Design the sequence.
């Protein structure tokens, strides 16, 4: 976010069928369509001209309406909100920019007892922080609005080598993957075993600082590669910590298998434009890929070499948001720790 488009032409100002000149200037509102499908609503961001002995090239860059939410500071009448929801926070922060925020699948309905905005944050940064609490994604829509949504379960046309896939590159990596991930308490542990009895002391340290229910393993990592992650303040029963370690394993697995490919059409086999946050059955026998992947990015390209869609896809686990403790729970955890100290 924001979505963007770049057009390159050899003519400065286009004309209508009636012969009227259309003036294009930075800051103009615009809408882009592919056939009858609207794909982007926003503003002309920049115009550049290039003149040479045998050429006169014009490049126009258009961005979606969310460019203002991405670059501009958030404005609020109050910088602390109580008894609200993530959707309401996103709607409030986008309202000054004329951007509508919607949700599907219950995304953004998480109740937030207390949420504070940092004075220098952009609207995008506020939404990103809030949606982490709700465990949902947010991204642009063709009409210029922003959508809060869970990781999609909607399937679109398949990506098949020899049919609609022209080129593909698939990576399998061990970068950032660990054999075991354990949540660890950020606290001082009072030990009762003698220091010289190292084995018992280690066992006691493990029992006091590493909750047994907050650990996970990655069966795809055969070497000993441990990772410790902190238990957040306010997570008294380690519920979030247990979710966090599972999320760490799943996300790292998903991010280790990116697929980049080029399709021969902007549309799938059902005639619909390729869209992010949709699932596609992917069959690339020469690369040994038979997976259902989530489309993360789509680039529509048309030039001298034809019409193509460049797609980046990964396993759905790569996009699951990180589980977090809600702010009020953190405050209550701090208060409880203070009372008990």
Sequence:
């Amino acid at each position: 976010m924001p979505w963007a488009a770049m057009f390159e032409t050899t003519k400065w100002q286009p004309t209508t069928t009636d012969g009227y000149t259309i003036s294009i200037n930075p800051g103009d509102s615009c809408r882009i369509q592919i056939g009858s499908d609207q794909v982007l609503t926003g503003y002309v961001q920049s115009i550049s001209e290039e003149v040479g002995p045998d050429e006169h090239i014009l490049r126009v860059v258009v961005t979606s309406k969310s460019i203002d939410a991405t670059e501009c500071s958030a404005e609020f009448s109050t910088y602390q909100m109580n008894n609200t929801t993530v959707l309401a926070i996103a709607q409030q922060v986008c309202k000054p920019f004329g951007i509508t925020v919607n949700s599907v699948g219950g995304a953004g309905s998480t109740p937030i007892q207390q949420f504070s905005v940092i004075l220098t944050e952009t609207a995008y940064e506020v939404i990103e922080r809030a949606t982490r609490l709700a465990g949902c994604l947010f991204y642009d829509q063709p009409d210029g609005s922003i959508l809060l949504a869970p990781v999609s379960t909607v399937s679109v046309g398949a990506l098949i080598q020899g049919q609609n896939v022209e080129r593909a590159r698939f990576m399998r990596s061990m970068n950032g993957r660990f054999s075991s991930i354990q949540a660890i308490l950020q606290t001082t542990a009072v030990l009762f075993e003698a220091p010289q009895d190292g084995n018992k002391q280690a066992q006691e340290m493990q029992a006091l600082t590493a909750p047994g229910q907050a650990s996970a393993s990655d069966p795809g990592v055969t070497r000993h590669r441990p990772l410790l992650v902190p238990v957040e303040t306010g997570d008294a029963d380690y519920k979030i910590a247990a979710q966090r370690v599972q999320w760490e394993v799943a996300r790292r697995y998903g991010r280790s298998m990116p697929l980049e490919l080029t399709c021969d059409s902007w549309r799938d086999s059902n005639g619909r434009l390729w869209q992010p946050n949709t699932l596609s059955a992917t069959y690339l026998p020469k690369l040994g890929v038979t997976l259902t992947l989530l489309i993360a990015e789509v680039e529509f390209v048309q030039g001298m070499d034809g019409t193509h869609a460049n797609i980046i896809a990964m396993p759905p686990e790569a996009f699951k948001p990180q589980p977090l403790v809600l702010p009020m729970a953190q405050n209550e955890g701090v208060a409880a720790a203070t009372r008990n100290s």
About this structure: The CA atoms of residues 149 and 197 lie 53 Å apart. The first helix runs from residue 67 to 71. The longest strand covers residues 37-52.
